[in-house]
Design goal:
Monothiol glutaredoxin involved in the biogenesis of iron-sulfur clusters. Binds one iron-sulfur cluster per dimer. The iron-sulfur cluster is bound between subunits, and is complexed by a bound glutathione and a cysteine residue from each subunit. Keywords: Iron, Iron-sulfur, Metal-binding. GO terms for molecular function: 2 iron, 2 sulfur cluster binding; disulfide oxidoreductase activity; metal ion binding. By secondary structure, this protein is of the alpha/beta class. 41% of the residues lie in helices and 22% in strands. It has two domains: 7-111, Glutaredoxin, CATH 3.40.30.10; 127-226, Glutaredoxin (3-Layer(aba) Sandwich), CATH 3.40.30. It has helices spanning 13-21, 38-53, 68-73, 99-111, 127-138, 157-168, 182-191, 210-219, 221-226, and strands at 7-9, 27-33, 58-63, 81-86, 89-95, 143-147, 149-150, 153-154, 174-177, 199-202, 205-208. The N and C termini lie far apart (52 Å). The longest helix has 16 residues, at 38-53. The protein is built from nine helices and eleven strands. Helix 5 (127-138) crosses helix 7 (182-191). A five-stranded mixed β-sheet has the order 1-3-2-4-5, covered by helices on one side. Strands 9-6-10-11 form a four-stranded mixed β-sheet. The chain has a two-stranded antiparallel sheet with strand order 7-8.
Length: 229
C-alpha cells in the first residue's frame, strides 16, 4: 500500500512486539482493519495521509482477522478501531470511522508527551431501569439482531455473516448496535447468559448466536420458533 518507512503492515505477533519495543518514546498508531469493511477502506486512506504528515509517527496496519492474537491482546472487538501508544503505554482508543477524533488525538499526543485522554463518566441507570430498557429493545420487532455496527456496515465478521444469513433466508429484522451502548452490551451478556455477539432474539426471547441460528435454519426449527407467537 505504501513505501513509507513509518507505515508498516504487521505480519505476526513477534513482528508487532519488535516494532513497538524498538523505541519506547515513539508514538504509534495501530490500525485494526478488515478488507470487507467499507469504513476500513476509507479510514486506511486517512491513516496513510497521517503517516505522510507525521514522519515520526509509527503506523502499524493490523488486519484484525488475520492476526487474531494481536487483536485479542489489544481487546479489539470491531473494525475499524485505532489505538495510540507511546512505547507500550496506552494513550487513546478510537473506535469506529471517526477521522476527526483520530486526527485530533494524534495531533495532541505528537505535540507533547501527554497523559491519556480521560473519558467522561457514563450516566448510571438502575438495574431495574436497564432490564426494562433491554426488554423493550428485545421486543421491538419479531426478530431483533444485537450486533456490532449496522447491517450495511457491520464491524465484525460474525455480525456480517449473521446479517447475510438472515437476509439469505428472507427474514425481516430490526437491529441494535451494541457498540453504541456499553450498558446494554454488558447487560445482555448477563440477561441471556451468552458472552458474545451477535445475539438473535425471536418473539422477545434469546435464540442464540451465529452458529446456533445456522443450525436452527438447517433443521427448520427457526421457523417453528418464529411462528410460535
Amino acid at each position: 500500500m505504501s513505501n513509507l518507512e513509518n507505515f508498516v503492515n504487521v505480519t505476526s505477533p513477534e513482528h508487532f512486539r519488535a516494532l513497538l519495543s524498538k523505541d519506547l518514546e515513539r508514538v504509534s498508531l495501530i490500525n485494526f482493519w478488515a478488507p470487507w469493511a467499507a469504513p476500513c477502506t476509507q479510514m486506511n486512506e486517512v491513516v496513510l495521509e497521517l503517516a505522510k504528515k507525521y514522519p515520526k509517527l509509527l503506523v502499524l496496519q493490523v488486519e484484525a482477522e488475520e492476526q487474531p492474537d494481536i487483536t485479542e491482546s489489544m481487546d479489539i472487538e470491531a473494525v475499524p478501531s485505532f489505538i495510540v501508544l507511546r512505547g507500550h503505554a496506552l494513550l487513546s482508543r478510537i473506535p469506529g470511522a471517526d477521522a476527526i477524533r483520530l486526527t485530533t488525538a494524534l495531533a495532541a499526543h505528537l505535540q507533547s508527551p501527554a497523559a491519556p485522554i480521560p473519558t467522561p463518566l457514563e450516566k448510571k441507570e438502575t438495574p431495574e431501569e436497564l432490564k426494562s430498557r433491554m426488554d423493550g429493545l428485545m421486543s421491538k420487532s419479531k426478530v431483533v439482531l444485537f450486533m456490532k455496527g449496522q447491517p450495511d456496515e457491520p464491524r465484525c465478521g460474525f455480525s456480517r455473516q449473521t446479517v447475510q444469513l438472515l437476509r439469505d433466508n428472507k427474514v425481516e429484522f430490526t437491529h441494535f448496535d451494541i457498540l453504541s451502548d456499553e450498558s446494554v452490551r454488558q447487560g445482555l451478556k448477563q440477561l441471556n447468559d451468552w458472552p458474545t455477539f451477535p445475539q438473535i432474539i425471536v418473539n422477545g426471547e434469546f435464540v442464540g448466536g451465529l452458529d446456533v441460528t445456522k443450525d436452527l435454519f438447517n433443521t427448520g426449527e427457526f421457523w417453528e420458533i418464529y411462528k410460535s407467537a
